[in-house]
Specification:
The structure is a homodimer. The first copy, chain A, is of the alpha+beta class and about 150 residues long. Chain A folds into 2 domains: about 90 residues, Orthogonal Bundle (Arc Repressor Mutant, subunit A); about 60 residues, Ferric-uptake regulator, C-terminal dimerisarion domain (Dna Ligase, domain 1). The first copy, chain A, contains 5 helices and 6 strands, in the order ααβααββββαβ. Chain A is flat and about 50 Å long. Chains A and B meet through β2, α5 and β6 of A and β2, α5 and β6 of B. Chain A binds a DNA duplex (25 and 25 nucleotides) through α2 and α4.
Chain lengths: ~150, ~150
Amino acid sequence: MKVDLGTFQERLRQRGLKLTKPRRLVAGKLLSTGGHVAADDLIELLRRDGTPVGRATVYRTLAILRGSGLFDEHDFGSGHKVYERALGRPHHDHLFCVSCGAVIEFREPRIERLQDEVTRRHHFTAMYHSHKIFGYCRRCQSKAPQRVERHA
Amino acid sequence: MKVDLGTFQERLRQRGLKLTKPRRLVAGKLLSTGGHVAADDLIELLRRDGTPVGRATVYRTLAILRGSGLFDEHDFGSGHKVYERALGRPHHDHLFCVSCGAVIEFREPRIERLQDEVTRRHHFTAMYHSHKIFGYCRRCQSKAPQRVERHA
DNA sequence: ATAGATGCAAACACTTTGCATGGAC
DNA sequence: GTCCATGCAAAGTGTTTGCATCTAT
């Protein structure tokens, strides 16, 4: 499934919203950037492009993109939320390097299956989940303290 | 393993810190409350007890308790962090009801094992993880929208 | 005695909101 | 023309920090 501005327009229509220039700019930049981008990054990037968008508008647009299921929002505890394209991409979870901030995606269907089992066991209806593993990535091994895994 | 103020004192000593009255009050209240408590809850509870502790001190004490491995910190996306006793309790992860805010703990060693496999695969050294499933608890089923699981 | 702790208020960082103006439909 | 969107600045929220005072050791 191709995810582009056309898809965005379509989703906006479904909600009776307008496709404005600022919204096109935010969505476009988000799509072209890929990766895990924060609101401030977007504001800065758009400003540098000579097409500044007000911070309120950026936040409001991100809320729409998230609410439409086009983008996922993640909080890696860095004090700000980051966004990544969701539609048209397979689901995955993340490893986060506490040393360099690298975000590594992983897919493990067996974990997903066990999750279903857990929710069933608790008569719980899952809507979404967040599974993050924090530690040291391959390149930051040397900075890791000599300790075993602690859970949180 | 019994976790009490004595353990706290011991951990403080190890770091060259003092066991002061405010710290005893915060740790004591946290231990007696159980559950998942936020900084503001503590401040309010202590104030009501007639033993108020400054907000800065509460936050600073929570940081120590967390850093000493006595308490875990969780963010369920409610805008504030919550704390729960960690030492002397088995590790677990959480289901969070987006309707009533209920926090349900679950243990699933098979998921933990698969996690290890994932980190090994990526040459990643895990320090801790956060696995949360959001949705509707048994009692809030009726409020759940008719939709399949969405991931985030 | 002295290094560390307290508590107030001010500072912070991220995000949201009120409101007058502007633009999509 | 109507209703929604924008953008500024101000407000909000949870948390952290500077600093003079106090206290456990």
